[in-house]
Amino acid sequence: MEKVVIEKMDFSYPKKALLFEGLDLELSRGKVVGLLGKNGAGKSTLMRLMAGLLKPTKGVVLCDGEMAFDREPHFLDQLMFIPEQIALPDHLKVGEYAKVYRDFYLGFDEIRIQHLLSDFQLGLKERVSNLSYGQQKKLQIAIGLSTRAKLILLDEPTNGLDIPSKTAFRKLISANIQEDQLVVISTHQIKDIDHLIDQVVILEEGKIKLQADLDALEEAFVFGQGAVAPLDAIYTETHLLGARYIAKSQGESEGSPDLEMLFQAVMEGRIQGQYLSTSNPVMQ
Ligand SMILES: Nc1ncnc2c1ncn2[C@@H]1O[C@H](COP(=O)(O)OP(=O)(O)OP(=O)(O)O)[C@@H](O)[C@H]1O
Asked: What is the torsional sign of CA 120, 168, 214, 44?
């Protein structure tokens, strides 16, 4: 998958006000994108539009130039969408369930699924219906990463995972994603995707408030802390022991952006726009 391009898209659920209006977004391959937003911001809906499960009211969602909603067989062969709520068939065992996907995805990686299931401590002979919610999520993630789909959409994948599984999730995503894949992870648990994503997209009330590559953010801003925030700080959080802040960078690099602070700064309208590595930052 080279690109997902959303152009001038409107979308509303039947008999509801427009959720998206004139939305533009372009996502390129080789990236793990974190899609953030508060409850009801439209993350799951955007995922379903990208998966071609919903039809834009106006405008287009194009995956490598083809309308996602057409759901052509070669698009489906490149797509893996793991929704937040998963309904797994009761009667199958883990191995049998994985085989359903092996038969569907031409590039399914037999070795990888074995490794991933073992990393997540899931036995091939376990009945899917006997797995806990978190184990079912892990099974879906293991299968998703083994399909070698070019577009992987994970809606709230870390919901229900315990702390070791969240750590394993981060490691497994990083280790199993290739340059020709695009992974979009929606979450409101920002910490879960820290040190995992390359790009962040922040949605609020159906609008894209920020699209930024983390390395571009690192160049543009300093995410710091100290006894007091500098006078020119764009965003400040004060604590008993001092302040955490975001300021414009004067050329110094201060490590990776703090996503939680970034999210708050965007929600308060302190930072907006596009910060992409390939182009100059565009402030809106
Ligand atoms: N099937 C539906 N029919 C009607 N309205 C819907 C439907 N699904 C979602 N909505 C509405 O669309 C808006 C966006 O919902 P969506 O689930 O996309 O948000 P979200 O950002 O994923 O939220 P959350 O973080 O709570 O999962 C909400 O106002 C929601 O009530």
From this structure: positive
